[in-house]
Amino acid sequence: MSISQEKFKEMLKAKGLKVTNQRLLVLEVLAEHRDKHMTAEDIYELVKEDYPEIGLATIYRTMQLLLEMQLVDRVNLDDGCIRYEIGGLFDGEFRHHHHHLICRTCGRVFPFKDDLLEDLEGQIEGKTGFRVLDHELKFYGQCRECQEKEVTD
């Protein structure tokens, strides 16, 4: 995990919030699965392995708290589910989201980490004075496997 449990505890205390095992476990699960886009239910199933008495409502409240603290980001992949990923200030300094490539055929989602919009953000700020703090970008298309499958079918 990039952020230490001690740092997370400090952040909670600074906001006047209790440090709980549930909150720490949720953050650990997210950090261990940082390349996945997890639903609250996914997180619940993993946390429940170590903390069986936890409830799904606690997961939802914890996710809301982590969103407010900018330790996680909410991701909408147009599949009807709200998903979460480590982001925002998790590594100690603000960074942009990675982008998502969504296959229209099989529905798989591929992260794309290069931020190609920095020049555009600079132009926007130069022309309008508006500073872009973050953005979300989704590309829709067809993955290599689905393209190859179409050719052989």
TrEMBL record:
Keyword annotations: DNA-binding, Repressor, Transcription, Transcription regulation, Zinc
Top-rank lineage group of the source organism: Bacteria
Keyword hit for rRNA-binding: no
Family: Belongs to the Fur family.
PANTHER family: FERRIC UPTAKE REGULATION PROTEIN, ZINC UPTAKE REGULATION PROTEIN
Protein known as: Transcriptional repressor
Species of provenance: Dorea acetigenes
